[in-house]
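Interim report to the steering committee. The following record documents the input for Reverse transcriptase domain-containing protein (196 residues).
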Amino acid sequence: MGPFPSSRGNTYILVAVDYFSKWVEAKALPTNDARVVCKFLKSVFARFGAPRAFISNRGTHFYNDQFAKVMLKYGVTHHFSTAYHPQTSGKVEVSNRGLKRILERTIGENHASWSDKLDDALWAFCTAYKTPIRCTPYKLVYGKACHLQIKLEHKAYWALKQANFDLAVAGDHRKVQLNELNELRDHAYENSFIDL
């Protein structure tokens, strides 16, 4: 993605997305040439292993001899998306939009700080629930839920607290309602007998 306003000498964000887990790796970079892209991919391959296939657009940083050598070295099949057909790399486009939206919300007015906030945006993106996979990318990659340092409350309990309801009175009222319901059920059961 980019170019963006310069932030600590960086003007581009290189993004890699795992299609299965929706895990996103991104790095702020000063340029997007083939050497930088190859170095980034080697670091991703070293941590997660090489994928079977890699899909990219036909940008010059992906479509060159140096990149082809890296793909050959790691045994990765390189596929190119069709020009003017963004659906081919749809998951990457969705991830780019999501990451960009998180960055825009976290940097506020100081647009020059986007490279400092990139790691926080990645963390937020990878620990957010994704409906298609029915969990977070973090859980799929690491096999466990991420322990976030935030306090979560049940929404119904929160609503009771916000409305200043007395929980003891509400509990007593609920018990009365349950007793009345049991009496109605018993009465209906008794009335269901047929006299012969």
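The mean pLDDT is 83. The committee is asked to note this result when reviewing the revised timeline.
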